[in-house]
Fold this protein.
Amino acid sequence: MPCAVHPDAEPVAKCWACEKSLCDECHAFDVDGQPACAACGADQRGTGEAIGGAQLAVTALGYLGFLAVAVSLFKPRPIVGGLGAIFAIAFGRAVAIFFKPRVVVRRRRVEA
Ligand SMILES: [Zn+2]
Ligand SMILES: [Zn+2]
């Protein structure tokens, strides 16, 4: 199957997500090392950024939530802040591991 956008161009790859044939020009991204078209690559990149943002928010909220609970239970002590930070970082990591953001590499600039 020829490239969907450039019927005359030699297809060099197939999009990992939508399975469209891609010529070199349309092979815009690599997602986890697999070729992706411009639309699917941009999509994955948006998802990755959303996960990154969620991870930050969860880490911050986890920290504040832990502090709120720990301080009310144990009274403010230096150890409580330290434990809260460890807990929050672990919590944020868990989010990243759970959602597994893909590694998206832009190969070239794509003209719209
Ligand atoms: Zn695609
Ligand atoms: Zn093409």
In short: The pocket of zinc ion (ligand 2) is lined by residues 3, 5-6, 9, 23, 25-26 (CB under 6 Å). The mean pLDDT is 89. The chain has two helices and five strands. The chain has one domain: 11-106.
